[in-house]
Every structure is written in C-alpha cells, then in structure tokens.
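A reminder from the course coordinator: this example appears on the midterm review sheet, so study it carefully.

Given structure:
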C-alpha cells in the first residue's frame, strides 16, 4: 500500500486522538479487572467500550480495508514497510478482535445466537498486554516530534 504523505502537524494532532484510544483501552481494561463492575449492564458497557477502543488500535497498527481518512501507524513513517518491520506479526490475542467486535458488539447479528459463555469471554489481560507492546514499539520507532506532549505521560 502506498502511504499518502501527511503533514507533520496533522500527524501530531492525530496523535492526540491515538493517545485517547490508548488511554481508554487501558482505563476500561483496568475497570473490568478491578471488580468494580459486577456482571450486568454496567460491566457490559465497560467491556464494550474496551472492545471498541481495542479494535480501533488493532486497525491503527494492522489496517484492513483502510479508508483514506483513517489514521494509521504507517503514516508516521516514510514507507509503510518501515512500520511493518517494527510491529512484527499480529499477536494471536488480537487476531480475532476485529471480527468479534464487529459481530458481537458493533453490529446486531445472528452470529450472536451461537455464542456460549465460553466463546463470549474476552481475554482482556492478554489483549491489553499485546496492545501495550505495540504501543511501546510504535513510540520507540516514531519520531518524537510527531507525537504530542501528551505522550510523555506514557
């Protein structure tokens, strides 16, 4: 895929939105793991928020069917292959995330009828661990001038 060059200012501004996605994925995961939300509607709302933010990050790092206006990790590098070499392969915990998020959270589908308690379970800890590893790889590889000041908190 040919990377459309982006202005440094646009990348820095987009990095604020990326930071929000990272922050929300972490916060919702920690909320789920805290036990603060017992099984029920509030637990499910926090879980769904986690899944959507995690899906957004997976798309940022490993895009499929990207639209011209999508912000992607590869935009922060002169060539997409540069990022692809840094990121490595899609972690096993993240591979089904996009499809599951689409079928189980973002869209009302008949596929949900076949879900069992076992197949409905989300591996929150592993997903967060793998996303954090990708965020670390991204931060280590991207020129710091393209990240906003918010990133210093990470």
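Designed residues:
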């Amino acid at each position: 895929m040919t990377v459309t060059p982006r202005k440094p200012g646009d990348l820095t501004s987009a990095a604020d939105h990326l930071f929000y996605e990272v922050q929300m994925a972490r916060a919702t995961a920690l909320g789920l793991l805290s036990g603060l939300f017992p099984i029920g509607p509030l637990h499910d709302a926090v879980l769904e928020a986690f899944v959507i933010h995690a899906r957004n990050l997976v798309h940022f790092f490993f895009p499929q069917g990207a639209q011209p206006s999508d912000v992607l990790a590869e935009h922060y590098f002169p060539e997409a292959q540069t990022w692809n070499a840094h990121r490595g392969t899609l972690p096993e915990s993240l591979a089904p995330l996009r499809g599951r998020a689409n079928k189980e959270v973002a869209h009302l589908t008949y596929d949900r009828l076949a879900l069992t308690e076992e197949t409905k379970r989300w591996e929150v800890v592993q997903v967060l661990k793998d996303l954090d590893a990708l965020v670390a790889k991204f931060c280590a590889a991207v020129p710091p001038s393209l990240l906003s000041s918010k990133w210093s908190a990470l």
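The first helix runs from residue 8 to 34. The chain has one domain: 8-144.
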